[in-house]
């Protein structure tokens, strides 16, 4: 009766503990939409395009008004960061609107560092790559940073294809070690594009398997077997095939490939691989249920491992002990684990085996499990207590959780309910502690993954820049060849005039074809030339605006203008190589530019930008910065000279499914009066921005069959106001 009473109390306590834990976690996990804004601490101006994220959770950016909305929970850590200011960490403690003030960053970036390094050491690729390999298993970010420095362009620094291949191979090794197989696959592919190497192909196949792309892994390994491989490479390929087939549960093919690899390893006396493959064949047989065959190979691997080194021997004993556990040969398992414990204590350090740390606390726990499986509870208790004590020292919450729970279950089964209750209470505490730790680890892992991806993108950008420079050189070289070929054809035509009419006709045809190619190439070059002229023209006008702020000692306005101007310039330069960009991007650029002009002439005009909601912006493309010169003319030559405050309207209207109309309307002084305000020098010079825009439209229409039409007219009968209409057709 007394025992039943204690049992009832224990069950009631456990139920209440579980209920309390669940309620607490549910209350903590309630999510809500957190809204806020990011503003400059000095000017109180909103800051657009700021990175806002919840550690291990959601990500967003601020809009043009500096505002953001993100899903959050109480206690989450909000991170607000940008290259332009010091990163801010904010703990969410309420659901109210959040205002985050930021301070300007001191201005240190990775680029000046690399430039300084280039001045002192123009070409230190090997040094950087060796440093990357040194930190590969210690600090992933530092390792990737060294690869980045190795690939950065510099004076007198040319990176060969073989060096490029080595750099991306190292990146793949970093990704694979830190369990980022998707990134590893991309990097190994880039490495192979620069230099073919069986070792890299083997790593690629392994990355496919780790990414669970098993069929791609098998295809890559089989393709390697068709080529020439060294004995060690053959063993690695057969072993990789065996691993992949084992992962998909095909035991027959797994054993077959392991055995092929073992034959090659024995023939060439590759001792470490002989041990590994005996062990893996044993695992494959055990997985398939062929326990007798598995035991034969495990015995072989145990004997071979003893001849190698203590670490390898301990690792193999742990693996064979797991096999004995699976086969319910608990006495053999306990004996091996006791030996493992002695050797671990003698070595005095943790031996890492794949995903599991081979520690004394884990071995003690497994020995206790073996005793429990035989219902020898009294013998299991001392090992569990040792496991708990050693897990405490090593701060191993996972093993501690398992051991405390198992101890509670044993006390319950042998009728010691007080101890069972006490142990289960300790178990609940450890679970809560482990839950918090796991949440922190997940958060750190998410942040780590994001930072690694950002560094990876930086390296890809460097590679793309290098390829772009090569393409430009190639284009110039091909153009020169085209000109020389044209000259040769012309000479050939002159000589052939006196030979035969048939040769003359052939030469004329060749000339026609060459001129057509030249015309197309000239159009492409003309477009690039006009785009390159637009950027300096735009930059010059913008710097004049900054100069005017400085002239009136408005340093804060100049700083604000420069900040917004740099954001606009970054977007302009990103699109500078494109003939067309999505209409959505052009509208975004136009909003940024118009906002800058309004910032300078805010007493002169107001503006509106309206976009027909029926327009699918993703369906239309437009040359980059095509609309900016028209807006610039409206502000500088129409609204700036107006005595009262003017109005600038920019409208995007849908005509039909393939056509939209863009209107830029101002109620300024008009084109005729604007001419009167021009200086003599301005009258002699044509507007470079408008002229370049008209030439761009002409060339693009010739190449793409009348894609854009432009009309300019007055708005009012007194010749005041100007209206520019552009008709844009969908390709």
UniProtKB/TrEMBL annotation:
SUPFAM superfamilies documented for this protein: ATPase domain of HSP90 chaperone/DNA topoisomerase II/histidine kinase, Carboxypeptidase regulatory domain-like, TPR-like
TPR repeats: 401-434
Molecular functions per Gene Ontology: phosphorelay sensor kinase activity
Database matches in Gene3D superfamilies: Histidine kinase-like ATPase, C-terminal domain, Tetratricopeptide repeat domain
Alphabetic keyword roster: Coiled coil, Kinase, Membrane, Signal, TPR repeat, Transferase, Transmembrane, Transmembrane helix
Domain of life: Bacteria
Protein name: Histidine kinase
